[in-house]
Amino acid sequence: MSQLSRSLRLQGKSIGFVPTMGYLHEGHLSLARKANGDSDIVIMSIFVNPVQFGPQEDFKKYPRNLKRDTALAKSAGVDVIFYPSAKSMYPAGYKTYAEVEGLSDILCGEFRPGHFKGVSTVVAKLFNIVQPDIAYFGQKDAQQAIVIRRMALDLNMPVEIKVMPIVREKDGLAMSSRNTYLSKNERQDAFVLRKVLLLAKDLVRRGKRNSSYVIEKMRLMIQEKRSAKIDYIAILDAQTMAPVKFIRGKALVALAVWFGKTRLIDNIVVNS
Amino acid sequence: MSQLSRSLRLQGKSIGFVPTMGYLHEGHLSLARKANGDSDIVIMSIFVNPVQFGPQEDFKKYPRNLKRDTALAKSAGVDVIFYPSAKSMYPAGYKTYAEVEGLSDILCGEFRPGHFKGVSTVVAKLFNIVQPDIAYFGQKDAQQAIVIRRMALDLNMPVEIKVMPIVREKDGLAMSSRNTYLSKNERQDAFVLRKVLLLAKDLVRRGKRNSSYVIEKMRLMIQEKRSAKIDYIAILDAQTMAPVKFIRGKALVALAVWFGKTRLIDNIVVNS
User: Fold this and answer.
1) Cα(B264)–Cα(A253) distance, integer angstroms
2) Residue B239: pLDDT above 90?
3) Which of A17, A88, A166, B53 can bridge A132 by disulfide, Cβ–Cβ 3.0-4.6 Å?
4) What is the mean pLDDT of residues A67-71?
């Protein structure tokens, strides 16, 4: 992959890069299509990165289907799929981590210690291997996007980060490879995430600026769903991720909620 | 600098890179000359990196002389000098660090917590800005060289790391910008470093393979010098930096010794 990237760069080709963990859905494909419009060559990585999973997490059962992914990726304009082995990415004696301090241990990072350190490390590695001009991430993983943007800026990575809108199912559920874990009931309950995010947006639009008030209204609506268990609901500055007490201008409303054994995340930008 | 590197790369020029903290001596210049022989363009950075200095260390008094450095660098074949400000390298909100875990907290890292994390971070940044084909480091800073090699390998950095031999004063003292701190007496005493490293080499050549024995002989000789105070003497595997009890094949003998308020390091590779 390194050699191919190097030779593409020497030919003056621009490279668009879509890093994924595979089991592609319309969210990933929207990134690939965008990359296809922007760059000469679209490279997609498919790598279920062990370092970003905790010991109790779903690394082993995370859904994988390279054959299906390959066909979908091609249909969305991907030219090259890079699917390294864990052993080649983290050989014996591996010791180096890139970490965005202060953004990695809050929200999802509080529940998933080491997760964002694993994400920033693998993305730093992939950028060095693929050498993209532009890399694409989904707004669904809002904290991830903020962490990656910060890392690329701080470490002077020669790549532009583009964060693309959330792609949703018909009923509004954000697309995620983990949706496949949901039972029928859980899947029905999960619709509440979109509902409470739109509620938050509406409350803010109607002048409710107190974050605690908005969060409480969201909490009450989620708690009506039997399979739901809230991990967090937060209203934040979208650059620094500092909590926002009173919403002025733009803010990020983000949440993580369990449905049975599946933890889903979603978010919305509100504007007062 | 990023734009220049990018344009040089697009022109197909190869870039040799010598990162320094300035106050150049023959050690730095030997790296620049080597780079000049290897690559089309030689870039040298001069940046006294605040992040690798501890709060009690010599960041403020570290010697600086950009005008003299510029002339010396040119004479050694440097085409471009990059001397960023600390503010541009670490702007407000800076949060990201690259760290080689396990190699950064031993030896010099034990005495200088955060030092190697600062070194690996700034080198990661400089590599992304300068985009070199080859980067040059001195064997004098042996632990630094091992940390950088490991980071470049682990993070798949598209750069070759070359580590060049220690350049010494006539009496054998390893060249260092910090030698300028030494009083006349301390400077005379500091010669003992080279002497004990050659003693170690000789003992190993004569079949002494017990590291404790070799270290004890070195310790005794250093202790004869009034201004000397030993920080550490260690015999290590030159890749993993694991301590070596019995020397078989190659090993790195490394030491750090204070002379008055100046801490000097030196090392030698021995072969049994």
Assistant:
1) 53
2) no
3) A17
4) 98
| Domains in chain B with CATH codes | 2-164 (3.40.50.620), 177-271 (3.30.1300.10)
Residue in B9, B101, B124 nearest the CB of A155:
B124
Please give the C-alpha separations between residue B178 and each of B45, B94, B260, in angstroms, as whole numbers: 18, 29, 12
- Strands of the sheet containing A15-20, edge to edge, are A80-82, A41-46, A15-20, A134-138, A160-164
Q: How far apart are the first and last CA of chain A?
A: 46
The C-alpha atoms of residue B192 and residue B223 are separated, in whole angstroms, by 10
The pLDDT of B139-156, averaged and rounded, is 98
Measure Cα distances from A99 to A115, A118, A198, B123, B136 in Å.
10, 8, 33, 15, 25
Nearest residue to B221 via CA among B248, B243, B200: B200
Q: Work out the minimum CA distance from B119 to partner chain A, whole angstroms.
A: 13
Residues 90-109 of A with CB under 8 A from B: 93-103
**Residues forming beta bridges with residue A163, ordered by sequence position:** A137
Q: Which of A18, A27, A28, A174 is catalytic?
A: A28
ipTM of the complex: 0.96
Beta-carbon count within 10 A of B208 CB: 15
